[in-house]
Write a structure and sequence with these properties.
The complex is a heterodimer of chains A (about 280) and B (about 270). Chain A is an all-alpha fold and about 280 residues long. Chain A has helices at about 5-15, 25-45, 55-70, 75-110, 115-130, 135-145, 150-175, 175-185, 190-225, 235-240, 245-275. Chain A contains 11 helices and no strands. The chains are: A mainly alpha (about 280), B mainly alpha (about 270). The interface between A and B is large, with 70 and 71 residues.
Chain lengths: ~280, ~270
């Protein structure tokens, strides 16, 4: 027997005797998996959905898509673009309202700026609009402002205030202590400290988040018209309801293209704001 | 008197970059165009907002004597149950379908360049369609009820979870990937043993986040006939019973906040 064979035999022998380490048992994963599967089965079996209609859904959707493309007419394009512009305007102005409302609230909700009592109260205040969808704000505002874009704008503004305020507060809490201490050491008052030590640090990130929220708000304002709060939603809802598939298709294409284009543009601006001019 | 030392001048303030200046001018122009009262503006006016909010109106009177007893009624209870069921079924199916799609949607997981571009385009289109619009389409396709709501949430979840997960996949540690390739793993084996274990916690967290989104979304699907608590809110709104509308909304608020707390706890444990 050569030496090489011997070594090999020994290695084989060790491999045979080797015990594979047991996989660590993860209770957490088991509990989550069981809960999800059980919840899913329970919900599927108890929900009052007409599952029998599910198999025909793909064919129907395909049929509708075919009609949308088949009946597409360029004559609908100007209308669709004008309504989509209204949706973009609603999203933009709504985001501006939210930015203005949330900016002071964000400082009151940041633990390193405001006292603990103020923080708790402000955070709860910000939680409420965060949980309520824009459409619900819109239906409540329509009796006040009448059907039209103003109700939608205010709805978007109020409901985004919660999210923007919370995120801005978190950005403010994450700012560096150094400049604050320096401002303190130079004898800055509390407002001066915020103005010169905190705002310059957090502004790029907060503005980037405003833009991000604008992207989300376009999706929201595109459907506000379903309840009559302005924008392209009205056109979508009516053309689908009256089965004018060509018009619905044009509106859908405009929504998708404009959303993707604005996402791309806004994303590029956000990256530029965060990274700065050099890179 | 002056404390300024000779020869020491204050540094000049840097001029705003052309990028920032052009951006600000552009944004101001968009704002004016969008807000002005002309053919293509929405006629934004603070006066009108103030007048509207200070004038007596039905929704606010309803808010003042909010009727929480509505929550105990059978209509509200079945609405809440339906919303939960829709959110669970929509999220679980959507998130499950999103995992393979997310692998294909990442540079690492896509088998080739063409497939990557096609999947990315598909995902961008899915994500550009808002939840309520999916519901409108499916109500037209399969009729009113819970089914179009579930289908809408399925596609909405598919878009969100795919996007978030594929972004995570693009950012993972490449060490295990190289190790798997060096060990002779096939492409699917590499995905299974080098990529999946790294992204699974984030994927689970995104799915839970998506559940919260779906819960919120399912409150509005009812406005277009896709079932859930939105149908109940729309019903009371149609009757002008704002006290009941706010009662249901308050109950919904509590449900959302509780689910958010639980989900935040689990997510913190995961990540």
């Amino acid at each position: 027997m050569t030496g090489a064979q011997q070594t090999r035999r020994a290695a084989d022998e060790r491999l045979r005797r080797a015990v594979r380490p047991e996989k660590p048992f993860n209770w957490f994963r088991l509990v989550v998996t069981v809960a999800v599967v059980a919840g899913f089965l329970l919900a599927t079996s108890t929900v009052d959905a007409h599952w029998g209609r599910l198999p025909e859904a793909p064919a129907q959707l395909w049929n509708i898509l075919g009609l949308m493309i088949g009946e597409l007419a360029l004559a609908d394009l100007p209308d669709a673009l004008a309504s989509m512009w209204e949706s973009v305007a609603i999203a933009w102005l709504g985001t501006m309202i939210a930015a203005v409302l949330s900016f002071p609230l964000a400082f009151l909700a940041a633990r390193n700026i405001a006292g603990p009592g103020t923080v708790v109260v402000t955070r709860q205040l910000l939680n409420i609009p965060r949980a309520i969808p824009e459409i619900i704000f819109a239906v409540a505002l329509i009796p006040i402002f009448g059907l039209g874009p103003l109700a939608g704008t205010v709805a978007i503004g109020l409901s985004s205030t919660g999210t923007i305020g919370k995120l801005s507060a978190e950005i403010i809490e994450g700012c560096e202590r150094g400049p604050i201490e320096a401002a303190d050491a130079a004898g800055a008052s509390k407002p001066q400290r915020v103005r010169w030590a905190v705002i310059p640090q957090v502004m790029p990130e907060i503005v980037a988040f405003w833009l991000y929220r604008f992207e989300i708000n376009i999706r929201a304002s595109a459907v506000l018209g379903v309840v009559g709060a302005g924008g392209i939603g009205t056109m979508l809802q009516q053309s689908i309801e009256f089965r004018q598939w060509g018009q619905a298709g044009m509106a859908l294409i405009v929504v998708i293209v404009v959303t993707i284009v604005i996402d791309a543009a806004s994303g590029a601006i956000r990256r530029r704001i965060i990274r700065g001019p050099s890179s | 008197m002056s404390s300024r030392q000779p020869g020491l001048t204050r540094p000049r303030r840097p001029r705003p970059s052309p990028f920032a200046a052009a951006g600000l001018v552009g944004l101001a122009a968009v704002t004016v165009l969008a807000g002005a009262d002309w053919e293509y503006g929405i006629g934004f006016s603070l006066v009108e907002i103030w007048d509207g909010l200070t004038r007596a109106n039905a929704p606010m009177r309803g808010l003042a004597d909010i009727d929480l007893g509505t929550l105990l009624g059978s209509r509200a209870r079945s609405g809440f149950l339906e919303t939960l069921q829709m959110a669970v079924v929509g999220t679980v199916t959507g998130a499950t379908a999103a995992l393979p799609l997310a692998l294909l949607n990442s540079r690492l997981g896509a088998p080739n360049r063409a497939g990557y571009v096609a999947v990315k385009l598909f995902n961008n289109i899915i994500r550009a369609v808002p939840d309520l619009l999916w519901a409108l389409l499916f109500v037209a396709a399969v009729g009113v009820g819970v089914l179009p709501g579930i289908l809408a949430l399925f596609f909405f979840s598919l878009g969100v979870v795919t996007k978030l997960t594929s972004d995570t996949i693009d950012g993972i540690d490449h060490g295990p990937v190289e190790a798997a390739r060096a060990g002779g793993a096939s492409h699917p084996q590499m995905l299974r043993y080098a990529v999946l274990p790294q992204v699974l916690p984030a994927y689970t967290a995104f799915s839970m986040y998506c559940f919260e989104l779906n819960l919120r979304a399912s409150a509005v699907l009812g406005f277009v006939g896709a079932g859930g608590i939105g149908a109940v809110i729309d019903f009371y709104r149609g009757q002008g019973q704002w006290d009941r509308v706010w009662g249901v909304v308050a109950g919904f608020l509590v449900v959302v906040i509780i689910v958010e707390r639980i989900s935040a706890l689990v997510r913190r444990r995961l990540l």
